[in-house]
């Protein structure tokens, strides 16, 4: 789709204002006696519309602002927030942060990341693509997606609606080391969810597109048609016998497996002793061909950044290589708690790529012979402390290397350690709608509880 940019883009002037506010607040913190301080400022603007069955359900325009101040008096920390830019409010916010710090106990891990770790080379990732989208135009897109889906198949009997969301964000982080970093980013999405069938035999599914630039979104009609095809494909599910099956997690749900790994190797879980991967760095967790790489400098990457939430310079590095966990995911505080060094992951990871070792989705199906494709996961049955995994699921039974029929009401279970090591293939069908970029993942064998 062709999208126009705003005629008057004042984002750089607004960023400069936020940088000025950050500098003023740091000066106030120093004057109040803080030995270290950091300030984060943000501005967000957005438009979101939703329709259902050809009618408008909601139109929402948002403008949000946030200012966060953190001060350190030695190793005592205090934080306060405000959305009010008046001088008296800014002064009160600094005063509140200082008062909290003076009444807290020393924390040996508290404080800014070391000055020599601060980022020094600003980069641009082509992440700024604001969309001059009026509410009526957004509604027209949502209505077009829903109508295309409803028209695609006579078995589409109802709709859960369609929506369009578009927004921009400006952010500034500055600290008393003299670091100042600013970022501009846009985000746009178009989604549709439809219901196939009638009476007790109804199935819901949908599709969405998400991108930093509106021209990278899938066409509205294509999204509606894909939502319809997915909903119809789920009709007339059959019972699945309980047993052990190879399980192919489709790309849109496969990234959740990487998410469970991240939760277990994050600093907070490790220093609290709430992870099944304590002391796992340097040990094999996956087959020897498996690799995950963090790539913070991708053009139009959804989480590209040249500095993390503490100003530390990001860097491209392996998380898993040769099947071996290379490192943990640490910010400055958790690194100090663990006696390690920050991995520049304060605020999260910056674009993970899971290396493929196989062909596309159809090629993976052909290689399965008989097994289960999981396209939806439900519930929160993952224990990060033990690695035990048990989640409700739905998808398709595979027979003879092809999809045979839909199944639902099943549970897939195992232990993440065993599941990671049992991964047999990662497909080339990468889902780019997330900062975790992976294709479908085939796990060689899992316990599947059906409705025998």
Structural summary, described in words:
- There is one protein chain.
- The chain is α+β, with helices and mostly antiparallel strands and 452 residues long.
- The chain has 2 domains: 11-232, PmbA/TldD fold (2-Layer Sandwich); 236-256 and 356-449, no CATH class.
- The chain is 24% helix and 36% strand.
- It is built from 9 helices and 17 strands.
- The chain has helices at 11-31, 87-102, 135-152, 220-233, 251-265, 267-271, 332-338, 361-368, 416-421; strands at residues 36-52, 55-73, 76-82, 156-175, 180-198, 201-211, 243-249, 292-294, 317-321, 324-325, 352-354, 371-378, 388-399, 402-415, 423-426, 436-437, 441-449.
- The strands form 3 sheets. Strands 3-2-1-4-5-6 form a 6-stranded antiparallel beta sheet. Strands 7-12-13-14-17 form a 5-stranded mixed beta barrel.
- The longest helix has 21 residues, at 11-31.
- The protein is globular, with a radius of gyration of 24 Å.
- It starts with 10 loop residues before the first helix and ends with a strand.
- The model has no long low-confidence stretch (mean pLDDT 96).
